[in-house]
UniProtKB/TrEMBL annotation:
Keywords: Cell membrane, Ion transport, Membrane, Sodium, Sodium transport, Symport, Transmembrane, Transmembrane helix, Transport. The chain crosses the membrane at residues 6-26, 38-60, 72-99, 120-146, 166-185, 197-217, 249-269, 290-317, 337-364, 385-404, 410-432, 439-457, 469-493. Signal peptide: none annotated. It comes from the Bacteria. Its main location: membrane. One of its GO terms (cellular component) is plasma membrane. The lineage of its organism: Bacteria, Pseudomonadati, Planctomycetota, Planctomycetia, Pirellulales. It catalyses: L-proline(in) + Na(+)(in) = L-proline(out) + Na(+)(out). This is Sodium:proline symporter. It comes from Blastopirellula marina.
Length: 510
């Protein structure tokens, strides 16, 4: 019960923050969607990092390390630190500049303008939203699992099926309601503030979680002795790649393509445009890799320790890798500390859900309703109402899908990221290759999503965590296919007009 009280207080604080940010809301759609380009370097760093560190990073990495071993850190965390910052630098700054110059709010607006194609938005809209929904599912599913695990035994008379814990469906519903409320009222400003607050919470409490578990897991007198005992207990096949036949050199190497997904995240594009000036990106580029290490390393170690002989994992938890982290928190911490640590885990989950909910509402409003309905047809107030309505719809759809089936958060996350990574050639070529044509863009997008759908189906809809294509991660042939299609078709089809090329590639003054 104590954990539930602390979690409830934390959620109430978030609601208060969202409602307070609404008092600073100017009423304009630009303020609701982009916070009037007023975000400084610290808020930009924290909102970007909070957005990218989802349940995938905490709940997913711990569960995957329990199942597959410490190599999980090398699979994504190490490469993500470098590739994410690279994308912020080579894509984010340039897109921010173009967005401020030409008034873009979404990716689709940029692509329509750059490629002189109105219909490209019709193709991209369902693809981007379709790939964001699995990303949302990661957070919604994980939040329910976390709350159910830490409240087990609190309500034995009400929830017998979950051993007295709040059912996952109810926990997910509450989290969705809280996030929806502060996004609904606060918009991008409320989201940026909430992300900053939650990022600080989950980073600090994440480190605390690590030390609490480390200090108790081995039953020894000192922290160092417990760390030694925990590390020695990890099975060899969770430490050495050679003893893990499912992780070949080629599969490991092609995992590095997955972090390219940040270049095409629509919610990250929206966060980039909130920056007050280009120099605000400097802090994010430098600090992001360090923050990833601070979050991922403890989670991966804790997951690997759970696979050792010092911890007895109940069959129900063993069958659900998403429950490993909340189980360890409940097992090795007291009620009060456990409540705070759980709040930290939920903070990581919600710090990405909010941006994604706001993003899909913005895309629908700007790129479908306003674009095809006519910009002069809707007032700013009506645009905000439309965005809020679609956000409610997406939250409802995501919550409904989360009730249908169970998937490992890590595996589902990798599939979601792989789809965005396959679209990376499009955003890179749009910014740096004059030869890119409208037809080339269509070919790239359709190839990417066709391969993604086929491979996703073949993997039993993410049910097979070891699915591969020719010994590689599916993202590799998807990325190769979309790149080849983009280049070949662009070379044999008409270029954009000279006016468009001058707009996006102005001649340098001598």
């Amino acid at each position: 019960m104590t954990q539930l009280v602390i979690i409830s207080i934390y959620l109430a604080l978030l609601l208060g923050l969202g409602l307070f940010s609404n008092r600073l809301f100017s009423g304009s759609s630009k303020d609701y969607m982009l916070a009037s380009h007023s975000i400084g370097p610290f808020l930009l760093l924290m909102s970007i990092f909070g957005t990218t560190m989802t349940a995938f990073a905490l709940v997913g990495s711990t569960g995957e390390a329990y199942k597959e071993g410490v190599g999980v850190y090398g699979l994504l965390a190490s490469s993500s630190g470098i590739i994410h910052s690279m994308c912020f630098f080579i894509l984010g700054v340039k897109l921010w500049s173009l967005g401020r110059k030409y008034g873009y709010t979404t990716q689709i607006e940029f692509f329509r303008d750059r490629l002189e194609s109105d219909k490209l938005g019709i193709v991209l809209f369902p693809i981007l939203v379709g790939l964001v929904i699995p990303y949302l599912l990661i957070g919604v599913m994980a939040s329910g699992t976390v709350i159910s695990a830490v409240t087990k035994g609190a309500f034995p008379a009400f929830f017998e099926a979950t051993q007295g814990g709040i059912p996952g469906w109810l926990g997910s519903l509450v989290v969705c309601g809280v996030v929806l409320t502060y996004v609904f009222f606060g918009g991008m400003r409320g989201t940026a503030w909430a992300n900053t607050f939650q990022t600080i919470v989950f980073m600090v409490l994440g480190v605390v979680t690590f030390f609490v578990i480390a200090n108790n897991i081995g039953g020894k007198a000192t922290l160092w002795e417990n760390l030694t005992a925990a590390s020695e207990s990890i099975p060899r096949n969770k430490l050495v790649r050679a003893d893990n036949p499912s992780m070949t050199y080629l599969r490991f190497a092609t995992y590095m393509f997955v972090p390219l997904s940040v270049g095409m995240f629509p919610h990250l594009f929206q966060h980039w445009l909130t920056a007050r000036k280009a120099s605000n990106f400097k802090l994010a580029v430098v600090a992001h890799p360090l923050f990833i290490m601070i979050v991922w390393a403890p989670c991966v170690l804790v997951g690997a320790w759970a696979a050792g002989s010092l911890v007895t994992i109940p069959p129900a938890v063993d069958a659900n890798a998403n429950a490993i982290l909340p189980f360890l928190v409940k097992r090795f911490s007291g009620d009060v500390l456990g409540g705070f640590l759980t709040a930290g885990v939920l903070a990581a989950i919600m710090s990405s859900l909010d941006s994604q909910f706001l993003c899909v509402g913005t895309i629908f409003t700007n790129d479908i309703v306003v674009h095809y309905g006519g910009k002069g047809r809707f007032s700013d107030k009506q645009i905000v109402v439309i965005a809020r309505t679609f956000i409610i719809l997406i939250v409802a759809i995501t919550y409904g899908l989360s009730l249908l089936d169970y998937r490992r958060v890590f595996t589902l996350g990798v599939w979601c990221f792989s789809g965005f990574s396959a679209l990376f050639p499009l955003i890179f070529a749009a910014l740096y290759w004059k030869q890119l044509t409208k037809a080339g863009a269509y070919a790239s997008v359709l190839t990417a999503i066709s391969l993604w759908c086929y491979f996703f189906y073949q993997s039993d809809f993410a049910g097979n965590p070891h699915y591969e294509v020719w010994g590689m991660m599916p993202v590799a042939p998807m990325l190769l296919g979309s790149t080849v299609a983009l280049i070949v078709v662009s070379l044999i089809t008409p270029k954009p007009s000279e006016e468009t090329l001058q707009k996006f590639f102005p001649a340098k003054e001598s």
